[in-house]
Design a protein that fits this description.
By secondary structure, this protein is of the alpha/beta class. It is 35% helix and 19% strand. The chain is globular. Bound molecules: pyridoxal-5'-phosphate. Pyridoxal-5'-phosphate (PLP) binds next to helix 4.
Length: 384
């Protein structure tokens, strides 16, 4: 018997090494990696600056505890707060834990319990974040959920206005629903959230776990819009592969997260924090975000051409370097066919192929990936 719980349907690929946009298996097959470890290795595999930062920290100290003043952690917090346009950072180890912190803080600061979230959302696998998630398949078999979440349809202002009331602690949303199939929030809908939350005294939490750290062509996706969250969460790309998450909030919220109110042994671990510093310094370099945005547009235009040539594509939804290709058939076969062709992609729901290339992807690599997608959509798949 395999000594791992079978929680993942694993691919038949064992990585041997990986660099930049490329991953080589133990069988010596080379794959162009448009998964980035599910939106994590945003600066490419084994990025040189991040490697150097981790190696430097490795030779100093690895872990103390959060009782100490940890310079590298403070630096990561300063850079992150500045990139996010907010003030205070709590470090966690994952996206779900960052969202847990946000949920706890919102409830404590408002002394209210209800959190409004959205159908098709994804916020994590812990008890609170699973309850926050608007997808039944994530919750099946786990008994009663935390009862304080209410779910409304994404981009539906009328439903949202009905749900937000004087008992609402926060509205929590993804700007682009990633796991839910790449659905982008509309400005008008964000305006309604702002109005409703300001009128009823509720906080706005934006889950930027998948959309953050440059993925959409800005440090955080909400920055494309006229929209001001009170709290955002980050993880995935923050450590480029080292496990670190963060909740970033307004300074007015700091008093509710005083000593003893929340914590994490590993949160803000110096090795992970050193990776985050290198990541943030890299993405905030002049021109870096603009280049990532340009590559996103290039990918979008190339994929649009594929749509013209095939009847297999029902819809194309992109935002920066996040792309969802909704097929007329199940996406799983296309994913496996692309693996055969040496391209790694993800799915999001049953029919959507999801592409999350690194922000450092080269234009020629985008061309190669799109050629492979075009090939399998025109040759291998048949409409069922
Ligand atoms: C939007 C969003 N929030 C939260 C999470 C959970 O993050 P983690 O798996 O690091 O707990 C994910 C993971 O896919 C995500 O996409």
């Amino acid at each position: 018997m395999n000594s791992l719980f079978p929680t993942y349907l694993r691919w038949n690929i064992e990585p041997e090494h990986a660099k930049g946009s490329w991953l080589t298996s133990t069988e010596g097959k080379e794959y162009l990696d448009f998964t980035s470890g599910i939106g994590v290795t945003n600066l490419g595999h084994c990025n040189d600056q991040v490697t150097e930062a981790i190696q430097t920290q490795l030779g100093k100290f690895w872990h103390t505890s959060n009782m100490f003043l940890i310079g590298v952690q403070q630096k990561a917090a300063d850079l992150l707060a500045e990139a996010a346009g907010l003030d205070c950072v709590f470090f966690s180890n994952s996206g779900a834990e960052a969202n847990e912190a946000a949920i706890k803080l919102a409830r404590k600061a408002t002394t209210r319990n209800k959190i409004v979230t959205f159908h098709n959302s994804f916020h994590g696998r812990t008890f609170a974040t699973m309850a926050a998630t608007g997808q039944d398949k994530i919750k099946t078999g786990y008994g009663p959920m935390l009862p304080t979440f209410e779910y409304v349809s994404f981009n539906d202002s009328a439903e949202l206005l009905k749900a937000v009331d004087e008992d609402t602690a926060a509205v929590m949303l993804e700007i682009v629903q990633g796991e839910g199939g790449i659905h982008v929030a509309q400005q008008e809908f964000l305006n309604t959230i702002t109005e409703a939350c300001r009128a009823k005294g509720a906080l706005i939490i934006v889950d930027e776990v998948q959309t953050g750290i440059g993925r959409t062509g800005k440090p955080f996706a909400y920055q494309h819009f006229d929209f001001k969250p009170d709290i955002i969460t980050s993880a995935k790309g923050l450590g480029n592969g080292l496990p670190i998450g963060a909740m970033i909030g307004k300074k007015e919220l700091a008093e509710y997260f005083g000593p003893g109110s929340h914590g994490s042994t590993f949160g803000g671990n110096p090795l992970c924090a050193s990776a985050a510093v290198a990541v943030l310094q890299t993405i905030m370099q002049p021109g870096f975000m603009e280049e990532a945005a340009k590559k996103g547009e290039y990918l979008q235009n190339a994929l649009k051409k594929v749509m013209e040539d095939t009847k297999m594509v029902k819809d194309l939804r992109t935002f920066g370097l996040m792309a969802g290709i909704e097929l007329n058939v199940e996406a799983q076969q296309a994913l496996l066919d692309l693996q055969e062709q040496g391209l790694l992609v993800l799915t999001a729901g049953p029919n959507v192929l999801r592409l999350l290339p690194p922000l450092t992807v080269e234009y020629a690599e985008i061309d190669t990936a799109v050629e492979k997608i075009s090939k399998i959509l025109s040759e291998s798949l048949t409409v069922s």
